[in-house]
Write a structure and sequence with these properties.
3 helices; single chain; 251 residues; 3 domains; six-stranded mixed sheet; binds zinc ion; Nucleoside Triphosphate Pyrophosphohydrolase; mainly beta
Length: 251
Amino acid sequence: MRAGSFIFCDSQLLVRADAPFTPAEKGALDLFASPRTVAESFVMRPEGVTVYALAGEPGAAPNGYDWVRLRMMLGLGLPHTAAALRALGLLNWRESHRFCSRCGGALEEHAVEVARFCPACGHLEYPGIAPAVIVRVEKEGKILLARHVQRIPHLWTCLAGYVELGESLEDCVRREVREEAGIEVGEVRYAVSQYWPYPNQMMVGFVAQWQAGELKLQASELTDARWFHPSELPDTPPKGTMAWRLIHGAY
Ligand SMILES: [Zn+2]
């Protein structure tokens, strides 16, 4: 990889303006108009790229550079997208794993593995991934979309939720659809997946077939849910998101 550094601030990545979504070269930190405080930095293996997290707000990018959100890079087939997602995921992990979860001692870098270890008790901490499902539920040529309490209120999107201990991904799809929409689904088929570093999710997309029941919404989760024909879709999340791919059949 030719890029020399991933410079993040508030989860936004510094990219070159003349080469869309190409991360900054080594030394780009020196180009800011005023010196920036580095809150965290590390060399990502095996790429050898240095990853920085700047403190504060992104502010103005240096001349010839822009700040972008990683979701803008998704779905474009760029060679460094996966590395950028991993860099942000590792930054998030490092910022929340400074101390041993077993004894509270300060963690140190592992010499070989992508991990941190505790000199006091020997405990190893690896970066974790939280699996979550997102599902396109189909019924008689229509798909189920909902407006969520916790998300952007005017957007209609797929049902989704975190996998609980002890259940399979398919179990999770059935439970989430039952809990949030009050219906039962039959066939559950894997469609597509995507890492999502906000802060560390593995989004696993499924297509499920309605089997029984009328919509009965969980008010704490959903403000509305309806069946939509693909030719009459409401406002949905933007391209690059898992929801967009599932809603538009891009999987
Ligand atoms: Zn420890």
